Amino acid sequence: MNPLKLVFKELFYRKVSSLIILVTVIAAGTVSVAVYTLSKASENETRKIMREQGLNLYIFPKGTNLIDFYSVNNTSTFPEHYIDTLAESKTFDAVRHLTGILQLKYPNWVDPNGSKHQIVVMGYKDEAMQRFLSKQETMGFDVEKGTVHIGALLSVNIPEGENFTIAGTDGKQYEFKVAKRLEEGKGMLDQGVAFNLTDLQQVLDMKGQINKIEALGCVCHDGRIKNARGQLQDIFSDLEVTEVSSIANARENQRLMMNKYGSFIIPFVLIVSLLISGLLFYSNVNSRKYEIGILKAMGKSKSYILFMILFKAFVIGLLGSLAGFFAGSFIAEYFGKEIFRFTAMSIKPLWSLLGYSVFIFPILWMLASWVPALLATQIDAAKTLSKE
Amino acid sequence: MLKINNVSKIYLKGKDKFTALQDVSLEVEKSDFLAVVGPSGSGKSTLLHLVGGLIQPDSGQVLFRGNDVYKMNSKEANRYRTKNVGFVFQQFHLIPYLTVYENIKIAETESERKNGKIEALLEKCALLPLKNKYPSELSVGEKQRTAFVRAIISEPEILLADEPTGNLDPENSKILMTLIKEFNEDGGTVLLVSHEPETTNYATKIITLRSGKRV
């Protein structure tokens, strides 16, 4: 008789005990999947908030006074190729989305009506791809050459369809197509114009120069700013990092806390469930001692008996992992939407977790049944079956 | 065919020693029907389990066709129990979640598997209409007959019966003993442990044990 059939028939015969073991697997699976999915959602939420806020680390020439930087025109600059060096560095990994910027006040811009205004001009270099880090979606401005993005306040003065004109340091008039009219709330850019870096360098006759690198600090356990500062100092001692502190910090702390709790809750629930299951398997073996005794008397080998118990654990582990995955994903989706505002719509089952679950849980539950299975092989058939 | 040489078995119960068998020897030929009788605790079942390869003796030998059963490796010992020995117990020990047919099928070896063999034996034992019933749906007589068919399905040379009629009424006892006798008459060897005189009447040889010794 096929031992698989024996396992399934026993499983259905002892419905209650099988069901209790299954419930422990489902509980462990549900908690693990839900907590992991929510911690991923929390991570995404933090990232999204940080992205919403824009790049949060600024790299300036050392000694730059930030008050001066925003109010005067002659801030120190540094070579544009620094950014390429950082992007090529193996050790500079505490920040992402490196964007080289040349940002200056432009005091006498003349609008199409002939009025003069002080505006901010910003030249954006395309975001640098860090060679030794995974590829990411770009965050900074991507301004094509020959075009500009104009700030909300400025766009009031430039009618639709008209080009943006600005006088260069060389006295020439430069004309750019308005590719985008930015919405309000872009900070300095509300009263400014975003150029492609090369275009602005030409207008201002500052070829190869930038005065700021904007970047996004990594989400690190040991503090992004400290890391970023150390790494930058090792490469360019004439630059320094300033962090734009924000609620992203609080969010990041929340995420780190979630990870911390997750790394405690998941193992705790798993261990408790495995211990309960181990005891239930032991009780199952005890209630089957006559059956195991008779199988031994029939000449069934120890491996046959071991297989019977372990395969049962495998089946329960497999079924429990599937149910636990879907239950955990549902719970994460249901409650996650309440908790994580920004990423609510993107909280979806992590399908890669299904693969891990169906692989790990049957193995864990086979391990939980291992000692009871070994005890089953040691059952003394003579003592069990004998009345004397 | 079966030779038991000076076997002894002592059980430890806490600090106390209990001598189940002491220097017991006997010889069983093919087609013998040997009844082992004696009072409760005399070592009858221990002797049966020793022959069945289930209990390692403390001393002595159990030889089957000249081979010491307790010097076999685990594979050979399993094979010995599967092919050469069939057990019938007083408590039936049927697997509760298997049908009558499946309880027998599980004991069937690959090599002895023949189409319709189980059905033929079930028919002979008046169990065929019950083949799809579970043990809980059977009477005690039907349960014991199922256990008997399970014991002989692999055509063992020796049938070891430990108080097989202990739970049966006289009518069912008679039916079972007739079936065991038929197995014996067909060339099978039977070792029967019993304290009921009616069942020992079927035996061709009787030995008596008292306090673990043959008397």
From TrEMBL, chain A:
Keywords: Cell membrane, Membrane, Transmembrane, Transmembrane helix. It is a multi-pass membrane protein. One of its GO terms (molecular function) is transmembrane transporter activity. It is found in: Cell membrane. It holds the Pfam family FtsX. The chain crosses the membrane at residues 20-38, 261-283, 303-332, 353-375. One of its GO terms (cellular component) is plasma membrane. Its main location: membrane. Belongs to the ABC-4 integral membrane protein family. PANTHER family: ABC TRANSPORTER PERMEASE YTRF, MEMBRANE COMPONENT OF TRANSPORTER-RELATED. This is ABC transporter permease. It comes from Mariniphaga sediminis.
From TrEMBL, chain B:
Residues 2-215 form the ABC transporter domain. It comes from the Bacteria. Keywords: ATP-binding, Nucleotide-binding, Transport. SMART domains: AAA. Signal peptide: none annotated. PANTHER family: ABC TRANSPORTER ATP-BINDING PROTEIN (PTHR24220:SF662), IMPORT ATP-BINDING PROTEIN (PTHR24220). The keyword Transport applies. It comes from Mariniphaga sediminis. One of its GO terms (molecular function) is ATP binding. GO terms for cellular component: plasma membrane. This is ABC transporter ATP-binding protein. The keyword Transport applies.
